[in-house]
Each structure stands twice: as C-alpha cells, then as structure tokens.
Amino acid sequence: MRIGEVAVAAGVSTRALRYYEEQQLLTSVRGAGGQRQYSPAVVEQVRLIQALYAAGLSSKVIAGILPCVNTGFATPEMMTRLAAERERLDTQLRELSQTGDRLDEIIAAARVQRPDQRTRPAARCATCSTLLRYQRRRRRTTRTDHTREAPPDRKLRRLPDQ
C-alpha cells in the first residue's frame, strides 16, 4: 500500500505517517520510484499508535511497546514499564470518572431548580457557584474589545507624500 492509501484507511494524515517513521514506530520499503510502500498490517498498527498517543503515551514509550505487540514477548523491564503505564491510565480514568460524577451533580442540581432561582444560577449549589465565579473571572481576564474606535477629538494624521 502507498502512503496515501494507508493514511485514508487508518484515518490519519500522510504527515502523521512520516512522523511515525521518523520516530521509528513504522517502517516502509521504498519502491522503484522512491515512494513508500507499506504492508496492509500497518493500518492496524497505525490505529494502535493513535490509541496509545490518545492515552497519553509518548513516542518513546510506544516505540518500546510495539516490539511486544509484534512478537508477543516482553522483557522484565518492558513488563515493569507496561504495568506503570497501566497504573497511570487507571489513575487518569479514576480522575475522569470523578469529574463525570461532579458534572452529574451539576446537571441534577440544574434540573431540580425552582423557577424563582432561574435568574440566579449561582444560588443553586456550591459547585455551580464556584464554576460560575471561575467562568466570570476567566472572561474578565481574557476579554478584549476590538470594536473600539479612536476618540472623536483625536484626528488621524496623514504622512506627507514623498
């Protein structure tokens, strides 16, 4: 398969495939015209690489994991690394789950609000109040007014023609 075909089949850009080669995550064979040629199995390998990147693994760690995937054999050092990465992912999943639970609380609080509280959402719960304060503070620090015009008493000066 040529690089464009692999990119389409795996759902990545050709630049990503070239990067994976630079990082020694993929290998290709050059054809007579100098074009990269990949085996069809590379599509699944690219999908795995994408999933590992999405999970937060670095290209160095992925490069160490791929031989285990290809051969089914892992050294004791690799097993230690894999176990550490698995623990990191478990921690990340627990934190995401806690965030999801917090959002569920906010949604539930918003659903049971009384009609007289709709104008003041911060009155609902402490979590909503905290989130709204954070949002307002963030808006104040990032707000810029691009529509301001020059004051009427200030005239723009023209540069003399040269």
Summarize the structure.
With 162 residues, this protein is mainly α.
What does this structure look like?
This protein is mostly helical and 162 residues long. Helices cover 59% and strands 2% of the residues. The chain has six helices and two strands; from the N terminus they run ααββαααα. It has helices spanning 3-10, 14-22, 42-54, 59-71, 76-111, 126-142, and strands spanning 29-30, 36-37. Strands 1-2 form a two-stranded antiparallel sheet. A hairpin with a 5-residue loop joins strand 1 and strand 2 (36-37). Helix 1 packs across helix 3. It is extended. The chain starts with a helix and ends in a 20-residue tail after the last helix.
